[in-house]
């Protein structure tokens, strides 16, 4: 299942049942688990809430037997509406017949459970499908942002589906193969069978039908590799006998469905068809997104999203966070000492540094995060469904991923790479997108001032929104620029020291000690460089201390 395990059980659910008693019993269990539940006894009212309401749902749960409109018909109407055609739908029934299950799946439902199902099993299934709904919503949001930037038509229907069966019993594997061939999409797939001993690191299948042992047991359980990954195939677990505890474990590990060998062939075929339909819808969204991305919304040097897409995606995610009342985090990152890389190692090395940082950020980010080159050596990341605490953890992961990377010059020489990061969160820090960008940029500047290669969060009210203008030619501002230059010149050439001396020389008054020392420093040799740097640092501190106490500049010693 393409979903994020970190999404937990938070989400918005629409629950429809004509029985007020059943509605209250099930709704209370869902709300106790942390879900936002909207309940109604009217199918027609639920149709309006789902398709026209101001707040979309992550999951819709429908009773099957309702007098005004049964759950199957309501499912078909929801599936025909663009607002709900991708929203996961679970059918709730007191019946337990194979025909009832098959009809519901054919109508477009993703799954169903009986009203007497154990709480643990019901909540595991609900958690699984809420994660699926949020993943689809994020993919749809990214797709919409792409479409606005690209003005591209919808992606074509995905090609023929691929199904792979992995089971240790050949007779069971063959039975499952017959069920796939008898499913509603039986003529639209390629079927292969594999023995469990044939271990695989990746799979290009759309649907994996696997035994419980392959999925969850042994040294390399399949769900551990594929269970929560956007690019992974759908996974159906087949167990020998029914077990509630094993069913819950399978769903919590990311399985799309859990079946037993006692499942009737017709239902087995319908469930396989339903899983394939879900996977094909998700693959179509990914294909559309990726196609547009490759054409126009990526930065040609780094392969990341470009600035145009970043701002469009940030708007989409910010509005979605407001609508769902969920947090989102913005991270702005900057490559430290990038000018030194270009000046000392050459612009080819500078390009190499940008590509190296980009690759490490992309490999560290989640599949639903947006990673962009914001301009020059600055990067931006949108982390949906992420509060400040987890945003800081993620930003520290990005910083650590880059720390230690090395770039080499064409004519020799090398430099270690680091990044600084600012972290801002909605709604903790800002109520508008522009405010979030401004405050996060100030946090990035704070990380630079505090020594670089670090992460700083927004500190509203304690930090200036913008940095002081670099052109201000006061002693304090010149000395601050000097400190930044010297911090970059740990092993740099003597020319940088002379530049620093010129800056101090121009900011000091003729005749004072600082003016004299900096005149000598500008003409110094490398042998006296370290001692002069020490003296200059002491004098710099004296200038700053005198400035704080109001002493005239000419009295500096």
Automatic annotation (TrEMBL):
<feature type="modified residue" description="4-aspartylphosphate">
    <location>
        <position position="63"/>
    </location>
</feature>
<keyword id="KW-0597">Phosphoprotein</keyword>
<dbReference type="InterPro" id="IPR001789">
    <property type="entry name" value="Sig_transdc_resp-reg_receiver"/>
</dbReference>
<dbReference type="Pfam" id="PF00990">
    <property type="entry name" value="GGDEF"/>
</dbReference>
<protein>
    <recommendedName>
        <fullName>diguanylate cyclase</fullName>
        <ecNumber>2.7.7.65</ecNumber>
    </recommendedName>
</protein>
<keyword id="KW-0808">Transferase</keyword>
<dbReference type="Pfam" id="PF00072">
    <property type="entry name" value="Response_reg"/>
</dbReference>
<dbReference type="GO" id="GO:0052621">
    <property type="term" value="F:diguanylate cyclase activity"/>
</dbReference>
<feature type="domain" description="Response regulatory">
    <location>
        <begin position="12"/>
        <end position="130"/>
    </location>
</feature>
<keyword id="KW-0548">Nucleotidyltransferase</keyword>
<dbReference type="InterPro" id="IPR043128">
    <property type="entry name" value="Rev_trsase/Diguanyl_cyclase"/>
</dbReference>
<dbReference type="InterPro" id="IPR000160">
    <property type="entry name" value="GGDEF_dom"/>
</dbReference>
<feature type="domain" description="GGDEF">
    <location>
        <begin position="326"/>
        <end position="460"/>
    </location>
</feature>
<dbReference type="InterPro" id="IPR029787">
    <property type="entry name" value="Nucleotide_cyclase"/>
</dbReference>
<dbReference type="InterPro" id="IPR011006">
    <property type="entry name" value="CheY-like_superfamily"/>
</dbReference>
<dbReference type="InterPro" id="IPR050469">
    <property type="entry name" value="Diguanylate_Cyclase"/>
</dbReference>
């Amino acid at each position: 299942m393409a979903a994020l395990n970190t999404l937990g059980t938070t989400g918005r659910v629409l629950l429809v049942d004509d029985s007020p008693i059943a509605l209250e019993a099930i709704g209370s269990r869902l709300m106790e688990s942390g879900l936002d539940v909207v309940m109604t006894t009217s199918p027609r009212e639920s149709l309006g809430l789902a398709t026209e309401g101001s707040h979309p749902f992550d999951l819709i749960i429908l009773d099957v037997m309702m007098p005004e409109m049964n759950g199957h018909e309501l499912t078909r109407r929801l599936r025909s509406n663009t607002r709900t055609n991708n929203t996961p739908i679970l059918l709730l029934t007191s019946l337990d017949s194979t025909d009832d299950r098959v009809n519901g799946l054919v109508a477009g439902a993703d799954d169903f459970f009986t009203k007497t199902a154990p709480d643990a099993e019901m909540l595991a299934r609900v958690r699984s499908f809420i994660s699926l709904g949020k993943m689809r919503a994020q993919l749809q949001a990214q797709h919409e942002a792409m479409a606005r930037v690209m003005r591209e038509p919808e992606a074509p229907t995905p090609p023929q589906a691929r199904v792979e069966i992995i089971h240790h019993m050949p007779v069971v594997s063959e039975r499952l193969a017959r069920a796939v061939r008898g499913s509603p999409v039986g003529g639209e797939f390629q079927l292969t069978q594999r023995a469990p001993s044939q271990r695989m690191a990746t799979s290009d299948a759309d649907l994996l039908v696997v035994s419980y042992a392959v999925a969850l047991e042994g040294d390399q359980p399949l769900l551990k590799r594929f269970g929560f990954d956007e690019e992974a195939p759908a996974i159906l677990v087949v167990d020998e006998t029914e077990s509630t505890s094993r069913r819950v474990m399978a769903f919590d590990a990311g399985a799309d469905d859990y079946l037993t060998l006692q499942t009737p062939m017709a239902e087995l075929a319908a469930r396989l068809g339903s899983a394939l339909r879900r996977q094909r819808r998700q693959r179509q969204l990914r294909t559309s997104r990726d196609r547009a991305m490759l054409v126009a919304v990526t930065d040609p040097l780094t392969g990341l999203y470009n600035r145009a897409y970043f701002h469009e995606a940030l708007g989409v995610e910010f509005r979605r966070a407001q609508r769902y009342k969920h947090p989102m985090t913005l991270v702005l990152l900057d490559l430290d000492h990038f000018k030194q890389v270009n000046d000392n190692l050459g612009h080819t090395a500078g390009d190499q540094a940008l590509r190296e940082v980009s690759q490490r950020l992309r490999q560290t980010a989640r599949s639903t995060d947006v990673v962009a080159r914001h301009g020059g050596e600055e990067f931006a990341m949108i982390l949906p469904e992420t509060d400040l605490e987890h945003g800081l953890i993620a930003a520290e992961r990005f910083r650590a991923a880059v720390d230690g990377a090395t770039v080499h010059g064409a004519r020799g020489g090398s430099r270690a790479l680091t990044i600084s990061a600012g972290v801002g969160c909605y709604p903790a820090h800002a109520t508008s997108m522009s405010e979030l960008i401004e405050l996060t940029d100030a946090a990035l500047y704070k990380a630079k001032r505090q020594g670089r290669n670090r992460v700083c969060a927004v500190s509203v009210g304690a930090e200036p929104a913008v940095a002081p203008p670099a052109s201000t030619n006061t002693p304090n501002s010149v000395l601050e620029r000097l400190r930044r230059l010297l911090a970059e010149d740990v092993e740099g050439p003597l020319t940088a020291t002379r530049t620093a001396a010129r800056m101090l020389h121009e900011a000091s008054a003729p005749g004072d000690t600082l003016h004299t020392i900096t005149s000598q420093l500008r003409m110094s040799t490398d042998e006296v460089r370290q001692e002069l740097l020490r003296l200059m640092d002491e004098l710099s501190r004296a200038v700053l201390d005198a400035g704080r106490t109001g002493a005239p500049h000419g009295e500096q010693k």
